[in-house]
Specification:
single chain; 501 residues; mainly alpha; 2 domains; 3-stranded antiparallel beta sheet; two-stranded antiparallel sheet; hydrolase; 6-hairpin_glycosidase_sf; carbohydrate metabolism; glycosidase; polysaccharide degradation
């Protein structure tokens, strides 16, 4: 078919435009970071943490099936879910928080994800929620952990070879666990929102279950690690150090957002003070939800639909001011290279979760044309965007070590991470069983890990920006799911806004 000259000119212009766009994208990626690549790898990491029977489309093929009899000693199916870090334990408390943050990332920033990456993010969420549904399948009982950490930590063993005790820990009406139950209700509620457009039936199941689990949390109040049986397994790793009250508010807040049920609004209004919503602790993570709670609830006030929640906006403002170096209320520490730093190990969990809250709150402020007054220092959305960008760019390589702290991203990244599956030969290369102590030779080796856990973000450098790449130094070299989960949302934002104003 003959094309007219004007059509040929149009095609030439289209090709020219395409060339200019591609050139501009390449220029931006050369000058900055490839946030889309980092996002894809950040989500891929979760495939390396999978427990259970792996699907045919598993991309990290050095992993194999594991934990296939989890729960059987108790007569329940507890297969699936994620190992929280570099060991082979399934801790329910941090896993539920990981799930909440993955789902929140999709809710707030899913529109910024390319379709294929959004699909991968939802798959990562569902791998967790399918497991969480199993843990709450029995009325008034929640299975909160699988595996004895003392025994597990005495071995350096692939998850595929696990022959250590897969002890099951649970809470019930006489041994309550409002913290784990509240966080699980939050996770299922947030996930119900993430799946609402893609799988309405599954979304409904998640929300119905969240309602029941939250009722259990509120009816039988108590911290799960106050239970001596659970304490023997969860502590000192994931004790509830900050109390269960914040998880009750957190669970109610997510149920309010997911269901729009006024009873949860009343719960937040009536219990905020008594449950410590005004506790302005400058952290947010698996054990302390106050800062995230205040940001989450403030959305409804900022939208102008619920003025009784104004105090939550004030508390969220106060938290943001603690992060502003110029503010008189600043309480955060930064390394000389500019990284948020909190002593205690696994520092990147604080970095990624705080950066996530900064971006979410910046978006809420931007939509309502509001700012934060930090004692005469006015902080707008653009300031919060820039603060978060400095943190994510540091993680990806803009730091004194010139190292990416995400495995597999960039030309220089940690080679000896504290992770059993990554550091031991894969079952493909070494199908023979490797017993508990036989793995010690690989732990003590100075060789790089044979299996690259793509996307894993390690605990990170010390307060002087120094990182030794030492497998034995788990505080710096161990990745965790709750480091990566909020980073999914952070990276998704910068995919769409690589150079925020």
């Amino acid at each position: 078919m003959m094309r007219c000259p004007s059509h040929r000119r149009f095609l030439l212009l289209l090709h020219l435009l395409f060339f200019l766009v591609v050139t501009e994208v390449r220029r931006v990626n050369c000058d900055g970071h490839d946030y889309q690549e980092a996002l894809s790898k950040c989500i891929l990491f979760f495939e390396g943490q999978r427990s259970g029977s792996l699907p045919a489309d598993q991309r990290l093929t050095w992993r194999g099936h594991s934990g296939l009899s989890d729960g059987s000693a108790t007569g329940v199916d507890l297969t699936g879910g994620y190992y929280d870090a570099g060991d082979n334990i399934k801790f329910g408390f941090p896993m539920a928080f990981t799930t909440t943050m993955l789902a929140w990332s999709v809710i707030e920033f899913g529109d910024s994800m390319p379709p294929s990456i959004l699909r991968d993010a939802l798959v990562a969420v569902r791998w967790a929620t399918d497991y969480l549904l199993k843990t709450v399948a029995q009325p008034d009982r929640i299975f909160v952990q699988v595996g004895d950490p003392t025994i597990d930590h005495n071995c350096w063993e692939r998850p595929e070879d696990m022959d250590t005790a897969r002890t099951v820990y649970s809470v019930d009406t006489t041994r309550p666990g409002s913290d784990v139950a509240g966080e699980t209700a939050a996770a299922l509620s947030a996930a119900s929102m993430a799946f609402r457009l893609f799988d309405p039936g599954y979304s409904d199941t998640l929300l119905r279950t969240a309602v029941r689990v939250f009722q259990f949390a509120d009816d039988y109040k108590g911290a799960y690690s106050d239970n001596s049986d659970v304490r023997s397994g969860a502590c000192p790793f994931y004790c509830d150090f900050d109390g269960y009250q914040d998880e009750l508010l957190w669970g109610a807040a997510w149920l309010r957002r997911a269901s729009q049920d006024d009873s949860y609004l009343s719960y937040i209004q009536n219990n905020g003070k008594t449950l410590g919503a005004d506790d302005n602790i400058n952290e947010f993570g698996w054990d302390n939800k106050h800062a995230g709670l205040n940001v989450l609830v403030s959305k409804e006030f900022l939208e102008g639909s619920e003025y009784s929640l104004e105090s939550y906006k004030a508390w969220a403002d106060s938290f943001m001011c603690t992060l502003i170096p110029e503010s008189s209320s600043s309480h955060i520490e930064y390394t000389p290279g500019g990284l948020i730093y909190k002593p205690g190990g696994s520092n990147m969990q604080h970095v990624t979760s705080i950066a996530f809250l900064q971006l979410v709150y910046a978006n809420y402020l931007s939509r309502s044309s509001q700012t934060v007054n930090c004692g005469g220092v006015i902080v707008g959305p653009s300031s919060l965007h820039q603060l978060a960008k400095r943190q994510v760019d540091y993680i990806l390589g803009d730091n004194p070590m010139e190292m990416s702290y995400m495995v597999g991203y960039g030309s220089k990244y940690p080679q000896r991470i504290h992770h059993r599956g990554s550091s031991l030969p894969s079952v493909n290369d070494h199908p023979q069983f490797i017993a508990c102590k036989e793995g010690s030779v690989y732990f003590n080796s100075s060789d790089p890990n044979p299996n690259v856990l793509v996307g894993a973000v390690v605990g990170g450098p010390d307060e002087d920006d120094v990182y030794e790449d030492d497998r034995a130094d788990f505080r710096k070299s161990e990745p965790t799911t709750y480091i990566n989960a909020p980073l999914v949302g952070v990276l998704a934002y910068f995919v769409a806004n690589p150079n925020p104003n």
